[in-house]
Write a structure and sequence with these properties.
This protein is 20% helix and 27% strand. With 295 residues, the protein is an alpha+beta fold. It has one domain: Clavaminate synthase-like (Double-stranded beta-helix), CATH 3.60.130. A hairpin with a 6-residue loop joins strand 1 and strand 2. It starts with 15 loop residues before the first strand and ends in a 5-residue tail after the last strand. The structure holds succinic acid (SIN).
């Protein structure tokens, strides 16, 4: 019997990883994501993601399925609870957009209005998210990333002691009732959707499961309170933690360029969408990769 022909391994690609000068973030130049990556190339990208927390693939030209396939190399994909904003035929992709058609938003318009780590409100929060630019505004629309390892390192000893071994509660709807931006109507969640986003508790300081580094893991977007503390004390401590989370020197600003796909590590950074003028269109496609239970 003739031997079955084996599929040749994907060819190595000559791409460059260029760290940004401030230490957070790196851009990846010359990688063709329409092709499957071979093991060594994938390992370089994986290492850059762990080291720099935010990697920017430049001049990306991929289909939704290629974005999904590449994202899946890092883990299982999570499907967002707002089903109405999933890309038709590709529910693994969440549309992030301020565009409305016939009076209906085509995507999640206020994703990232508050600092947050994606899906921290799930038992298994996200490992990382890939956000791929589709339509960019001529003004504004930047995304900010704050390094939560540096935030933890900056905490004064007393504050560290106050949160040592403590957990915080995270809730998807923590800020849901607050006024939305630009007339966007937040969809009312059905009982089935609400059942998917019950409050969860996570350690305030988590250990990165791949690098072993400690990071703060609270954010104003989804954290509601510190478990077991009186409300006032919990509010005060969280306010302090939020202040240390976003020290200007620990923030990386991403100014989007056509073809950018940004892949960040939700275990290491929180992020914020700065918004753009309402008359300008901004649409991106997000895949969200499931991570481990924080410890
Ligand atoms: C998000 O929070 O996933 C969206 C960030 C952005 O739109 O810049």
């Amino acid at each position: 019997m003739p031997l079955a022909a084996s599929t040749p391994a994907p060819a190595a690609q000559p791409f460059e990883i260029r760290p940004f000068p401030a230490g957070t973030g790196a851009e990846i130049i010359g990688l063709d994501l329409t092709q499957p990556l071979n093991g060594d190339d994938f390992a370089r990208v994986h290492r850059a993601h762990l080291d720099y927390h935010v990697v920017v693939f430049r001049e990306t030209r991929i289909t939704p399925q290629q974005q999904i396939d590449f994202s899946r190399r890092f883990g299982t994909l999570q499907i967002h609870v707002l089903k109405q904003f999933l890309l038709a035929g590709h529910p693994e992709i969440l549309i992030v957009s301020n565009v409305a058609e016939n009076g209906q938003n085509i995507g999640l318009s206020d994703a990232g209005k508050f600092w947050h780590s994606d899906l921290s409100y799930k038992e298994l929060p996200s490992l990382g998210s890939m956000l791929y630019a589709q339509t960019l505004p001529s003004e504004g629309g930047d995304t900010l990333f704050a390094d939560m390892h540096k935030a933890y390192a900056a905490l004064p000893a007393e504050l560290r002691k106050a949160i040592d071994g403590q957990k915080a509660s995270h809730l998807y709807t923590a800020r849901y009732a607050e006024p939305a931006i630009n007339g966007y109507q937040r969809p009312t969640l059905t009982p089935e959707q609400l059942a998917q986003v019950k409050p969860v508790e996570h350690p305030i300081v988590r250990t990165h499961p791949e690098t072993g580094r400690k990071a703060l893991f609270v954010s104003e977007g989804f954290t509601t309170h510190i478990v077991g503390l009186p409300e006032d004390e919990s509010r005060q401590i969280l306010a302090e933690l939020y202040r240390y989370s976003v020290l200007p020197e620990n923030i990386h600003r991403h100014q989007w360029q056509e073809g950018d796909m940004v892949f960040w590590d939700n275990r290491s950074v929180i992020h914020l969408a700065t918004g753009c003028p309402a008359h300008l269109h901004r649409t991106l496609h997000r895949t969200t990769i499931q991570g481990d239970a924080p410890f």
